[in-house]
Amino acid sequence: MQIVLISGLSGSGKSVALNVLEDAGYYVVDNLPATLLPQLVSNLRGSGYQRVAVAVDVRSGTSIAALPGEVERLREMVEDVRFIFLDARDDTLIARFSETRRRHPLGEENVTLAEAIAREREALDPIAQLGYRMDTSDTQANTLRAWIKDFMQLEATAGLTLLFQSFGFKYGIPVDADLVFDVRCLPNPHYDPKLRPLTGKDQAVIDFLERIPEVGRMAEDIRRFVANWLPAYIRDNRSYLTVAIGCTGGQHRSVYFAEWLAEAFGSSVRVMVRHRASARRAQDGQGHA
C-alpha cells in the first residue's frame, strides 16, 4: 500500500496536488486530523485500496502537532509512505489570497493576512522537514501539476482520456471537439445500395473502405498527427482530448475512422469512442455517410 501525505501553507497548491493524485487513481482525503491517519489507513486497506493521498494541515487544528509521531506510526503499518510539503514566499501567498478573495484558515478579526501566514508558518515549521519540500513561489498550476507527476513518477497519460467521436457535418460540428478532421473527400459507401443501411462498424463497409488507398493514407496521417501532438496536450494537463472525425451523415466513413483510430491508440492511452449520429439516424431512419 502507498500513502502520500500532502501538507504545507495555505495557498501553496495543496488542492492542485490532490487533484493530480485523484486523477491518477488515488483515493483522496482532504483536511484529515493527523491523529486519525492510522485509523483511516486501516479502514481503507481493509477495503482494498492500494493508493491513498491525504492532506493534513492547520485546518485540522492542534492535531497537526501530532503529525511527526503519526508519520512514524504509518511507516510501521505501510511499506510506502511519502510526504510532500508545499511552501511559498509570503508575497506569493498574499497575492494568491488577494486574487481568490478567500479567507485564510487562521484569519481572525484584527489579524492581518500577513500575520495569519506568519502564524501558520510557525505552526507548520516542525513538520516542514518531514519529507520532500516544494517551493511553489511564482509557479503556475500547470507547472506544479508536472512537478507532482514527476515526483510521484506517475504515468504520463494517467490523467488523460482520448475520445474519438464520429459525426455528420449535416448536423453540425460537435461543440466539445478539440481537433476536427473532415473525411468527406473519400468515396462514400452510401451510394452502394447494399452498404447504405450499414455503418462503419460492419465488415462489408470496412472492406469497401480498406480497398481504397486514400483511406489508408488519410487514416495514417490523422494517427500520426494525433500521436505527434498528444504529448503537448498531456503536458497541458488535459483530462480529455476529443478528436472528432466528420463525414456527411456520420454513418460510414467517420465511424470507420473513429473505430480505427481507437484501436490504433488503445494500447498507449485510455481511449473512448462515441458515434454522435447514431441516435439521430435511429430517429429519422436515414443518413448519408
TrEMBL record:
Residues 1-152 form the RapZ-like N-terminal domain. GO terms for molecular function: ATP binding; GTP binding. Keywords: ATP-binding, GTP-binding, Nucleotide-binding. Gene3D superfamilies: P-loop containing nucleotide triphosphate hydrolases. It comes from the Bacteria. InterPro entries: P-loop_NTPase, RapZ-like, RapZ-like_N, RapZ_C. ATP binds at residues 8-15. Residues 161-277 form the RapZ C-terminal domain. GTP binds at residues 57-60. PANTHER family: RNASE ADAPTER PROTEIN RAPZ. This is RNase adapter RapZ. The gene is rapZ.
